[in-house]
Each structure stands twice: as C-alpha cells, then as structure tokens.
Amino acid sequence: QFLMANKLDTAMWISRLFTVYCSALFVLPLLGLHEAASFYQRALLANALTSALRLHQRLPHFQLSRAFLAQALLEDSCHYLLYSLIFVNSYPVTMSIFPVLLFSLLHAATYTKKVLDARSSNSLPFLRNLLEKLNANQQNILKFIACNEIFLMPATVFMLF
C-alpha cells in the first residue's frame, strides 16, 4: 500500500536500485568487458530517468520559455540529467560512474528505510543494520563524490584532446 500510494517515489527507488545494479556490474565486470560497457550505458540511462522523474516532481508543468529553462537549470536534477546524457555516448569512464552509483545508493537506502518502516519497525534487522552503517558514512561518501567530480573535470577536458 505504501508503494502504491507513492508511485513516483517508488519508480525513482526502482530506477535507483537498477542504477546501483548496473553500476556495480560495470565496476566489477563479472560478465565480461563487452557487457560491462553496456552496463555503463544502462546505469547512466537509469540515472537520467531518475533525474528526469525528480525534475518532473520539482518543476511545474513544462513551458517553452526562458524563465522555465532558467528555473530548470537551477535544479540539481537537471545537472545530473545533463551529466548522464553527456557521458552515456562516450567511451566508458570509471570516474564518471562513481557519483551516479553512490548518489543512487544513498537515495535508495533512504527510501528502503522508509519502505521497511512502513512494513514494520523491526523487519529485516540485517538490512536495517546495513542501512544504518551506510547512513553513518554518508558524509565520507559525499566528500568522495565531491572529490571525484573535481578530478573528473580535468580528466574530461584531457579526454577531449
């Protein structure tokens, strides 16, 4: 009932879980290197879907105007949508997948905790413990993402040449 009552949040949760899955299969190429490249694209497309859903949630109805575009460009969701669309057609760059993977992991963990709370307060204690450890390391994960994005900029410029 909780999932059906929050359909848009549930769709974003599923797309974030899919992003984590595809990113993990790219970083750890268990199915081969050729398949890893397709998981890279799938992870970025799933992140683009999540960002588009989040942008749809935060912005009013679409209008073809300068004011709407300016408002859209102020949203982080728009930045990550553009980020995903830029890297989806490039050669797979491991540095570019880490922010996508880690943000999806953090947001999926937060919503998973809400789902578990809606189910019952003491369901799946192992998963709850894992989510608490992830939440305890959230600041370190965000610092890693920030450093990764800082180092990604010069690497991207270098790749252009």
UniProtKB/TrEMBL annotation:
Database matches in InterPro entries: PER33/POM33_regulator, TMEM33/Pom33
Q: Name one Pfam family in it.
A: TMEM33_Pom33
Query: Where in the cell does this protein reside?
Result: Membrane
| Keywords from the UniProt entry | Membrane, Transmembrane, Transmembrane helix
- In terms of one coarse class, where is the protein primarily found? membrane
According to the record, the segments passing through the membrane are: 12-33, 93-111
Q: Which GO terms describe its cellular component?
A: endoplasmic reticulum; membrane
Membrane topology (UniProt): Multi-pass membrane protein
Q: Which GO terms describe its biological process?
A: endoplasmic reticulum tubular network organization; membrane organization
Provide the family line. Belongs to the PER33/POM33 family.
**PANTHER family annotated for this entry?**
TRANSMEMBRANE PROTEIN 33
Specify the protein name: TMM33 protein
The organism's taxonomy opens as: Eukaryota, Metazoa, Chordata, Craniata, Vertebrata
